[in-house]
Design goal:
By secondary structure, this protein is an alpha+beta fold. It has a single domain, classed as Hypothetical Protein Pfu-838710-001 (Beta Barrel), CATH 2.40.320. It is built from 6 helices and 10 strands; from the N terminus they run βααβββββαβαβββαα. Strands 1-5-4-3-2-8-9-10 form an 8-stranded antiparallel β-barrel, surrounded by 5 helices. Strands 6-7 form a two-stranded antiparallel ribbon. It is globular and about 55 Å long. The mean pLDDT is 95.
């Protein structure tokens, strides 16, 4: 069966992902830029402001809010050290009580707060998070540079996590061997694979573990 030809910036079937976070990925970033095929202007350089909702009791559902929409991805499996994630839900604010009860708080794996209204604005939802002992909202700004290496979608990003600057680098594809080749070509073999959920928890002290460097 012919492998799927990925197009950067477009939706494909669920991908496998390598990503890491640290202070210095200058050498692999330069190699990634040098090896990259041409990429569309819209993904060559991007900025975004997002809010991640992290839970002390959940490491398998990744929740973020961007442009007034809540997006939850769920962990599927790890193959050869690469993680696969699938969309769990995506919805706009204001958000209904039913969605909070049936989808959102179960994904956080925490006790349900008392919900007295039928719909909630983004601000009201963030107030619930702020008042929940097991949840924390974390502001994340991303300045991302997109590349395409060995038919894998790659990225180097300057990331501010509640104002703390870290560097992220990644390669993702539906094809595991293409990611492995990319990691070898740019010098990332042996570097720890750290997803956004784990990185944020480490930076804010919810997990007592350092980043890759």
């Amino acid at each position: 069966m012919a492998k799927e030809k990925l197009k950067i910036g477009e939706i494909s079937k669920p991908r496998f992902e390598f990503r890491s976070f640290g202070q210095d990925f200058e050498k692999p970033a330069k190699k990634m830029a040098k090896l990259s095929a041409p990429v569309p202007k819209k993904v060559k350089e991007r900025h975004s402001d997002e809010i991640y909702i992290v839970s002390k009791t959940n490491d398998i559902n990744n929740t973020k809010i961007r442009n007034g929409k809540m997006d939850i991805k769920t962990f599927v499996k790890t193959v050869d050290g690469l993680e696969q994630w699938n969309p769990l839900m995506k919805t706009k604010f204001p958000i209904s009580k039913d969605v909070l009860v049936n989808d959102v708080f179960p994904a956080f794996m925490v006790d349900m707060p008392k919900l007295k209204k039928e719909t909630y604005t983004l601000e009201e939802f963030l107030d619930m998070v702020k008042n929940h002992q097991d949840l924390q909202a974390v502001k994340v700004h991303k300045h991302r540079f997109g590349y395409m290496v060995n038919d894998t979608i790659c990225e180097v990003a300057n990331v501010l996590i509640n104002g703390a600057k870290v560097i992220s680098i990644n390669s993702e594809s539906t094809e595991i061997e293409d990611i492995k080749k990319t990691l070898k070509d740019v010098g990332l073999e042996g570097v720890e694979n750290i997803n956004y959920l784990q990185a944020i928890k480490r930076v804010i002290g919810m997990i007592d573990k350092p980043l890759a460097n």
